[in-house]
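assembly run, all chains below
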Amino acid sequence: MSAALAIVALATLGSAAAAMLGRSLLRSIFMLAVSWAGVAAFYMWAGAQFVAFAQVLIYLGAISMVALFAVLLTRQSRDEAPPPPAALRRAILAVVAAAGVAAVLLWAVAHSPLAVSGSLAPATSVRQLGFDLMGRHAAALLVVGVLLTIALLGAVVLAADGAQERPGDEP
Amino acid sequence: MSAGPTDAHLLERAPFLLRDWLTHALPEPLRWFANTLIAIAAILAIFGTLFALLTLVERKVLGRVQNRPGPNRTGWFGILQPVADGIKMLTKEDIVPRAADPLLHFLAPVALLGFSVLTFAVIPYGRDLVAVRLDAGVLYFFAAGSATELSIFMAGWSSNNKYALVAAMRALAQLISYELPLLLSAVPVVLAAGTLSAPDIVESQGGFTWGFVPHWHVFTPWGAAAFLVFFISALSESNRSPFDLPEAESELIAGHLTEYSGFKYALFFMAEYFGMCSLCGMAVTLFLGGWQAPLAALEFIPSYAWFALKLCALLLVFIWIRATLPRLRMDQLTRFAWKFLVPLALVNLAASAFWSLSFGWAGPMQALRWAIGIALAVGPFVLLGRRLGAGIGPRTYRYA
Amino acid sequence: MNALQLCLAFSSLLFAVGLAGALARSNAIIVLLGLELMLNAANINFIAFWRFSPSSAPATGVIFVLFSIAVAAAEAAVGMALVIAIYRHQKTIRLPDATDLKG
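ok done. output:
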């Protein structure tokens, strides 16, 4: 069991690190897609199948497309130039800061009394999820729906060209 | 994998008997593994053969529609044409452009084929004949299908070719535009059946009214509209005519496949046909009753035969549409998706909810239920269609 | 190190990778993608606790993660739209070049 977790974790962390370090923006996005798939594999390992499928559908099927379109529409598909020395110094400081955060978190994880319940995953059927979403969490669902609608409408307005449609363009 | 129906007759139980005969010598812990391997091998073999036959049938049907015989040189009625095509593809030189990204160029067809084949796992091919019985099977199907879009872009970008990149962007725009009506038209089915599991959706379409009208979802007003939207979106998701702009030979050479030759091209082709087959399979599952027989008297024909019959019927309609309709332009394509199919699918969701809530209406109320259902399906179609086609007046010519 | 601690360590490291990317890079798109990695790490945390800790309402952990994924998608869309709008204005998306309001 832990072997599978170790493989998934290493693959995810490796591809995430490659994505953050890479010079080529498009290759970073493909590496990041691999790490998102790794996260979905972790969800499957933990027994949360619905979340795993949602992760693949949303992250691999939608967010990566959004990122790709942003890259192509802002002409970033050429390889980046090597960064100037000031940026390199900032990068080293950033890595040190992130390593510090990781150290604090790992220390907290190692020294917390975290009890493990059983080895059986909690039985959450899709039916139960549906009842909970529409019952206890109905208000949150509606709020998230409104939030998504407004956010995406806003994104469309922001990214729109602003040019008027010419009258000769209709079918 | 289950033990199969124990009370059905011999033909119905034949796949399970064959599987048990193949694995009866194995010890119990290995049997699950062997069953899974047999399921995978069977799916790949059957759909691989279907892919080969489909290429031939498509060319013959297209030929006959265009008043020519189609391939008939290789063997009787051209039956060996897929073999000839396979040999040709295998023996072609595999050219990779020097400026291309070699790893992504290699991985793109692999990833595409991998995710396309993954979608075959949750389709119920017959009674108890489903590879994996997932609680959220329909969601898994759409998740695996949406992951194929990334590999199409990977193919277009890694070729380092302007035309391939533009074609990949157009393909991506088309795929994400039509993914929304695809999912939205499947949601009313989930609402009506009350489950995301594909075998359960098929089983909820059992039973007959008055002995001869099956309870398939396509025979309800919202189901017919949803089936049409799903079908059109499936046409587009598999890059088939009239939505085959990404591969339009007259426009972008071969689109995102321009720099692929030999077996990799064949893999892309295979992935496209596999996608077509799995989307048709899901359409049969969601709307046409899956493996259910249309008449109670015909239930002696095995369930997998009914599924195969319905699948082939849908594939023939795919080919027929390709032979008949001209290609849509990119802006027409996206306008059709966003301004017509998505609102239609949303209204259809409301119609399906109404249908489920009015389940107890009987007698003359049943006629009212049908009237409201048909109005909710046909009304938005007419109104949206009228708005979409607005502005088509007499053609004006601008002379240079 | 039981399984829960391993999962939490994994999510902490992923968070750190995302944080390093978001702080170190000067390309706006990579910063946004680092943000997405951090959100993913938080989701992993939720699922780890859902898996290994008893609860009276077992579906709550999964529902929280679903909402988190949805909000992350909305935020990614808006962020990328902003990047496109900024590019249209100043023809570059390097964050150190966005100095219009400086001083």
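Confidence is low (pLDDT under 50) at residues 164-171 of chain A.

Chain A has six helices and no strands.

not gonna interpret more than that til we talk
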